[in-house]
Amino acid sequence: MVRSQELRDLTVIDEGKLKFLGRCFDQLIYWGRETLESTAPEICRWLRTHQVRWPARKPFKMLQEQSTVKRYVGHFKQLIYYTFRTGLLDNETCERMYGIRFTSGQKQLIHEIFTMLSDCKNDSLLEEDSDEDESDADDDIDGVDSDIEDLDDEPVVFEDLVVETSQCHGPAPLPIESKLSIRVAEKLLQLCIQFLNQRFPTGYDPHSPMLHFSAVLAIQTEHGRFRDSTTCTSLLAGLIWTSRLLVLEYALPKREYATLGWPSREAYADQATRFRDVREACLVEGCFCPISEIGNLMGYGIHLNKRAPQPGKIEWDEEYMGFQIGNVQSTITEFEKFIHGLIDSLEAMMHELFFEAEQPQIVLKDIKERMVEEKPGYSFLSEPKNGFENGHLHVLDLMMNAASISLRLLDDQGRWNIPKAREYLERKATFLMLLMLGNICTLHH
Questions:
Q1: Which of 129, 251, 317, 385 could form a disulfide with 368 if both were Cys (CB 3.0 to 4.6 A apart)?
Q2: Rounded CA gap, 278 and 69, in Å?
Q3: Which residues pair with 322 in a beta bridge?
């Protein structure tokens, strides 16, 4: 198993350069904001939807809350950090340790930008970032932000896979637009567009940078589990929102991108056609590009959210020692007693289900699981290294040999005791329901 420290030791780019890339990306978002403010509402209506034939009812705008803009942009920044940490490794190490694959063009751009940073060590902004000890709260450059699930209640219009917006707000530009920061920001846009424009000849590529990273976002490393669908849809919404802003900046920029030789929008006699061609190539449903797949995944998450029961509203007393959910009142002490009682009941029932024999000892941290396994139906129970494949034979052996005669479900001739077998299955079903209840009650502990 590869430890996170080993991965950090392999990293070629240092944190100072990653922070500088983050600030350059902020500059890119600022340019995107200026472009959006001067774009015709009809074009923004098409930008807001993933539909091919019908525009959205309302135009795409900047988000109303500055905190939401920062969080959404932060999600995409993490993609930038992640791809620079992995893209500078050799292909064999990159795929073996991370499972991500870059096209030759993407790898070349990553190396070009890294070379730009390495060759300009005297840039004042780069030196300033390298000396900073304090990192942005929303930009965890060591991986996926562990606090990313701390989301506010910004209203989301899931029908069009965007967030409802009104006034224009966005990140401020860099205090000083150095030549290096401008060149890097422009090259970052080129790299982002290569990520967004990557077409899948087979229709799907989970190892592509954006799809791979969207899967990484779903892993909650702090608790060693996957994030729930509610959190994942918000994360995907951030990627989609930022992607749309970047595509607009690529299609109809207000300013010229001298580093890339890209003209401003004034060079296009028919700006609507230019935008339509770019949008239909990478932003619409069925375009066989990352955003199409991410949008479908987000739509499925929304479907799950609508079917999942919503948690009840908890009202606390003044001392935060008692609470009420609907008509049910309780205290922290009573709830703790309930949890301990539930655990005791589960242990007793499990002892009965193992026919009162000694139970096997399993060390959870030693269980092996392939988190990137794509085969449907895969379970860590079938992983050979765990040795669980013949677990049912172990239980049958207990029932036939270790259990007392009064507890056995089969007689000496191998015939089932139907009433006892039904009672056993009922106890098993009750155990599983209580186990699920225990998982829900202790989910965040």
A1: 385
A2: 24
A3: 331
Structure tokens at 33: 């904001």
Instruction: Please state the φ and ψ torsions of residue 193, each to the nearest 5 degrees.
Output: -65, -35
410, two tokens? 């089969």
pLDDT tens track, the chain, 445 positions: 444 566 667 788 888 899 999 999 999 999 999 999 999 999 999 999 999 999 999 999 998 788 889 999 999 999 999 999 999 998 888 888 889 999 999 999 999 999 999 876 655 555 555 444 444 433 443 333 333 333 333 333 323 333 333 333 445 544 456 889 999 999 999 999 999 999 999 999 999 999 999 999 998 877 778 888 888 898 999 999 999 999 999 999 999 999 999 999 999 999 999 999 999 999 999 999 999 999 999 999 888 888 876 666 788 888 888 888 878 888 989 989 999 999 999 999 988 888 887 777 888 888 888 776 777 778 888 888 888 877 778 777 777 777 777 888 877 777 888 888 899 899 999 999 999 988 888 765 5
Phi first, then psi, for residue 323 (nearest 5°) are -145, 165
Cα gap 199→283, rounded to integer Å: 11
Query: Pick from 342, 337, 336, 310: which is nearest to 439 by CA?
Result: 342
Q: Locate the domains of the chain by residue range.
A: 4-307, 315-441
Contact call for residues 45 and 54 (beta carbons, < 8 A): no
Nearest to 293 by CA among 213, 189, 358, 387: 213
> Residue 133 — φ and ψ, nearest 5°?
-100, -20
Cβ(305)–Cβ(234) under 8 Å? Answer: no
Q: Which residue has the tokens 């770019």?
A: 278
In the chain, the N- to C-terminal Cα span, in Å, equals 25
Dist. CA 219–CA 201, nearest whole Å: 27
> What gap in Å lies between CA 59 and CA 55, rounded to an integer?
9
Residue 258 and residue 369: Cα distance in Å, rounded? 48
Distances (CA, A) of 53 to 24, 186, 358: 35, 31, 65
